[in-house]
Write a structure and sequence with these properties.
Strand content: 35-45%
Helix content: under 10%
Number of strands: 12
Number of domains: 2
Mean pLDDT: 90
Strand order of the largest sheet: 1-2-7-12-11
Number of helices: 3
Largest sheet: 5 strands, mixed, barrel
Structural class: mainly beta
Length: about 210
């Protein structure tokens, strides 16, 4: 005789896709590593971000879905919008993104002074997070002395993250001709700025979010 399980199914629940956009979040971890690149030695800073409950206040455009895939116009190849009945595209709430974890592609810090111009993205990250850098004069030029972020500087900080779709070729098929390669997509954090209205998470609150 069949046994009743603790598992349930909600027929009213519907899977919602992630859309590119800007969402409220908190930085939950930071790591650094040294790498060798074509532009010289560098330090890569990677951070992890968890979407805040306030995301439920936001909306995103709604598109026709076929399971987990978008339905597309066979003539144009474009996604088909869902109409709200007033010749406008419907929107849905973003509550499905609450507690979602996102990662960035890393912020590079080139340590060789000849590659200092390549540090713009990392400097902009520091500036966006309200981290000030001292100005120094080297060989008659005024430059910014960069600082290396540590976990205690950013973990728990409220931020607004811009999420972009990132397509990549799987490791298993990289060596194959382009027409035989398998491509997949994920969403990565492209930009980070301060979230003035967000609350800073305490160390205890961050530990509650760590899975065991």
């Amino acid at each position: 005789m069949a046994k009743t399980l603790d598992a349930t199914f909600d027929p009213n629940s519907q899977w919602r896709p992630i859309e590119e956009g800007t969402y409220p979040a908190h930085i939950t971890s930071l790591s650094t590593k040294e790498v060798n690149t074509r532009a010289g030695e560098a330090i890569v800073v990677n951070m992890t971000y968890k979407v805040a409950p306030e995301v439920a206040k936001l909306t995103q455009l709604e598109w026709e879905m076929d399971g987990y895939e978008y339905r597309k116009n066979p003539q144009t190849g474009e996604r088909i919008p869902v109409s709200n009945g007033s010749d406008e595209q419907s929107t849905i709430g973003c509550a499905h993104l609450k507690d979602r974890t996102f990662y960035d592609n890393g912020f590079f810090i080139f340590t060789d002074t000849s590659s200092s111009s390549k540090n713009r993205r990392y400097f902009e990250l520091l500036d966006n997070l309200g981290m000030s850098c001292k100005e120094e004069e080297i060989e008659g030029k005024k430059v910014k002395q960069l600082i290396l972020l540590e976990e205690e500087d950013v973990c728990g900080q409220p931020v607004l993250i811009t999420v972009k779709r990132h397509e990549f070729v799987t490791t298993e098929t990289k060596h194959l001709p382009s027409d035989q390669q398998e491509k997949r997509a994920t969403f990565k954090v492209n930009n980070v700025i301060q979230w003035p209205d967000g609350d800073v998470l305490s160390e205890d609150e961050l530990e509650e979010d760590v899975p065991f």
